[in-house]
# Entry
Amino acid sequence: MGNVTPASPPHPDLLTAALAKWARSTLEIRGLEESVLVDLRAIERHVDDPSPRGRALGVRGLLKEAIDRIDDSAQQEAARRLFGLATGTRALNWGGRENKAAKALNLGRDAFRKRRPRSHGDRLIAAVAEEIFLLEREYLARERWQARRSELAGIAYEPTRAQIDLYTAMGGHVFAAAAELA
# Structure
């Protein structure tokens, strides 16, 4: 990643598509290694290993953080079940996770899957993608602020030649006095 700071996070629709594709698969980590999700800067606080696999594991941490930011506790639990983060759901297929998510919302599977403009599952995925988008945007803003602060600190505290000479003269005097006392 280096010191390159992207201008903005990926569009929420792109995140929604990536999340939907991964959620409807087997939730395998190897399915994430080529996803736009592993390129998000916000996962860095969840990554111990910078390898592609380590970054893919960091997506799970970011996913948990995003789900925890959803306002409705029933939707949080449904999202945890849908993404295989609730106990006993990771090994389930998409249909099994849909059933568990529907139960968290007190819906039948058919009502959960029913397409209006979008199904409940699609809306949950979009809500999580929106939270990830916001987390990424906050992370990038913090990163830009820290870079700007460092830049300003470097300018504000960069001593002039006269200050360096004065410090050296004072330091030389102090160090000479300390050497005489020893």
Remarks:
- Helices lie at 12-23, 52-68, 73-82, 94-104, 109-113, 120-156, 161-181.
- Confidence is low (pLDDT under 50) at residues 1-5, 172-179.
- The radius of gyration is 25 Å.
